Request: fold
Amino acid sequence: MAVEFVQETGEGLANATSYCSIAEMEQYWDNQDYDYSAITTENKQRYLNKATSYIDNNYRRNFPGYRLTSTQALEWPRYGAYYVPSEYAIADDIVPVEIKNAVNEMAYIISQGTNPVASISKDGKVIRTSSKVDVIETSTTYEEGTVLYNDIYTAVDDALSRITGGVSDMYTLTILRVGGDSA
Reply:
């Protein structure tokens, strides 16, 4: 089955699947010196669709304003959106360049073999497994555990920081002073 690929135009389309066109992605990747010469058009569409979905699903709670219509497929365009911390308004009929840049970064990350929605354990990712057949033996080595459920993609967070406030606003760290008082 063919990939459904519809770029959001700023109208709040009910069938949009991507914030970026392939031409926008290629220009962004050229500017970043990312190679896409071996990637088919269909795979570029898949990467952009998956990246758009990732951005919407993982950052929607941090986007200011409200979806332009109740029937639009994606989170942008938005009414009442603004840049953080300046509070300059973002036009209602556009997809901001920051959103497009984040999608292009995530599409590149996906093209490199990373699955940003892979299931991970709170105990840490499996980094090595081994087994032995005679006298049955098995072992699993995990990365150090984390309280975060998902990886942080700093290039994506940086691209969105003018809209979301960046990773520092998404996660709260408690700093304890000597003596146990919270900062």
User: Anything to note?
Assistant: The CA atoms of residues 3 and 139 lie 40 Å apart. The radius of gyration is 20 Å. The first helix runs from residue 22 to 32.
